[in-house]
């Protein structure tokens, strides 16, 4: 019996094929737009999440004061006994690598000119092995763990100091006691992070050189890299229990840019989806209203033959489901085709504000997004159709039969 009502609704949509085709076309375009916009937003979220986790580590372990207060001197809140902490972290089955980091600021000079630097001391070999090519090397080579006294400069900083691979520079920074210390270094390479403002200040050196300059064996923090993003929250709980005296943050806690972009995109694409959904509802409502007006006498005849108002409402709701469902399926196919085409024929996006590198445009084909969008479109179409039909189907039979 249910299949007969569905067949009846399908045949009714074919009574005015032009109007039904326009309704399906608009619903399909709306569905495709929502899926493509949502897929692009998901692609952006995933990309920024990977970049953030790769930069800091999935987990960041440090003393509580490191996250709560500014330092008066370099590494005032630094982490002691690094080897023991690292050994405890590596004992966790989800931990792939632990990378120490020393962060400090100071001056860098070529003898004639000095400028402010933001420096980071890293363990080069595991750093580049775990993170992969997180820097675009434009000249020279990356740091290696067996060589000390070498630095890598951001592209803008190297240009400002007229430094090239092999050039000699001097680093000046405050020690942990508040005194000034200087250290001669050699330029190993020049890199670009894709952020011009950051490239004007950023310096990478090896861990031993950084600790020698600030005269300490401490590190600022430990970046914990896990085997998967999904293991972040469970691993954080285990690490916090194993190291109760230390503070543990996730990459989300330090990913300010990621959270800002996600909040902005959620609002933009949420409003876009709402507007498109309202347009589709109005189109389906208009189509069903015209169909109901044209069939008022038919409705009166069916009522006179014993058809219940609820059955007629259900019939019109099924017509809306057919129109909305057909449009949603066609729109989903269009969105899939565009998503696949972007993988086969890459399109390069221009650099976003504040960056110098573009990125490939891709759209994530997320099953949950597709299922949710199709279900929402079908549900809205059915509700709109039932809402339009509710007054006509309860109209007195005599008035319906006399309708002109």
Compact overview of the structure:
By secondary structure, the protein is of the alpha+beta class.
Describe this entry's structure for a reader:
With 404 residues, the chain is an alpha+beta fold. The protein contains 15 helices and 12 strands. The strands form 2 sheets. It has a 6-stranded mixed barrel, surrounded by 4 helices. A hairpin with a 5-residue loop joins strand 6 (168-174) and strand 7. Helix 1 (2-13) packs across helix 13 (309-344), helix 2 (17-56) runs antiparallel to helix 11 and helix 13 (309-344) runs antiparallel to helix 14. The longest helix has 40 residues, at 17-56. The chain is elongated, with a radius of gyration of 32 Å. It starts with a helix and ends with a helix. The model has no long low-confidence stretch (mean pLDDT 87).
Descriptive terms for the model:
15 helices, single chain, 55% helix, elongated, six-stranded mixed barrel, 404 residues, 20% strand, two-stranded antiparallel sheet, alpha+beta
List strands and helices in order, with pairings:
Elements: H1 2-13, H2 17-56, E1 59-62, H3 64-68, H4 82-90, E2 95-109, E3 114-122, H5 124-131, E4 136-140, E5 150-154, H6 155-161, E6 168-174, E7 180-192, H7 196-199, E8 202-206, H8 207-214, E9 221-226, H9 232-242, E10 247-250, H10 251-254, H11 256-294, H12 296-304, H13 309-344, E11 347-349, E12 359-361, H14 367-393, H15 397-401
Parallel strand pairs: 3-8, 5-7
Antiparallel strand pairs: 1-9, 1-10, 2-3, 2-6, 2-9, 4-7, 5-8, 6-7, 11-12
Helix pairs in contact: 1-13, 2-11, 2-13, 2-14, 11-13, 11-14, 13-14
């Amino acid at each position: 019996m249910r299949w007969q009502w569905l067949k009846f609704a399908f045949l009714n949509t074919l009574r005015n094929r032009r109007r039904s085709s326009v309704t399906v076309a608009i619903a399909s375009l709306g569905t495709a737009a929502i899926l493509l916009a949502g897929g692009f937003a998901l692609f952006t979220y995933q990309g920024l999440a990977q970049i953030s986790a790769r930069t800091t580590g999935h987990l960041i372990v440090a003393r509580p004061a490191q996250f709560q207060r500014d330092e008066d001197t370099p590494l005032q809140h630094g982490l002691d006994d690094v080897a023991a902490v690292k050994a405890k972290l590596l004992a966790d089955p989800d931990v792939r690598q632990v990378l120490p980091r020393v962060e400090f600021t100071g001056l860098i000079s070529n003898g004639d000119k000095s400028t402010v630097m933001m420096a980071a001391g890293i363990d080069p070999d595991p750093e580049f092995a775990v993170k992969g090519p997180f820097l675009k090397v434009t000249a020279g080579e990356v740091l290696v763990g067996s060589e000390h006294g070498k630095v890598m400069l951001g592209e803008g900083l190297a240009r400002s100091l007229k430094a090239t691979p092999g050039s000699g520079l001097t680093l000046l920074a405050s020690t942990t006691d508040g005194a000034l210390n200087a250290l001669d270094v050699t330029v190993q390479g020049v890199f670009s992070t894709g952020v011009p403002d950051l490239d004007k200040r950023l310096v990478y050196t090896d861990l031993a050189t950084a600790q020698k300059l600030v005269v300490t064996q401490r590190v600022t923090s430990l970046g914990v890299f896990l085997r998967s993003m999904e293991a972040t929250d469970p691993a954080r709980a285990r690490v916090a229990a194993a190291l109760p005296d230390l503070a543990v943050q996730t990459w989300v806690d330090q990913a300010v840019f990621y959270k800002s972009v996600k909040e902005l995109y959620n609002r933009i694409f949420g409003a876009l989806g709402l507007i498109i959904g309202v347009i589709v509802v109005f189109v389906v409502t208009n189509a069903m209203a015209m169909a109901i007006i044209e069939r008022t006498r038919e409705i009166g005849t069916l009522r006179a033959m014993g058809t219940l108002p609820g059955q007629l409402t259900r019939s019109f709701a099924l017509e809306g489901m057919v129109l909305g469902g057909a449009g949603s399926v066609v729109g989903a196919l269009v969105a899939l085709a565009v998503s696949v085409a972007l993988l086969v024929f890459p399109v390069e996006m221009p650099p976003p504000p504040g960056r110098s590198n573009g990125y490939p445009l891709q759209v994530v084909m997320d099953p949950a997004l597709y299922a949710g969008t199709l279900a929402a479109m079908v549900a809205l179409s059915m509700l709109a159709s039932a809402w339009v039909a509710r007054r006509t189907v309860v109209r007195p039979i005599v008035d319906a039969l006399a309708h002109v």
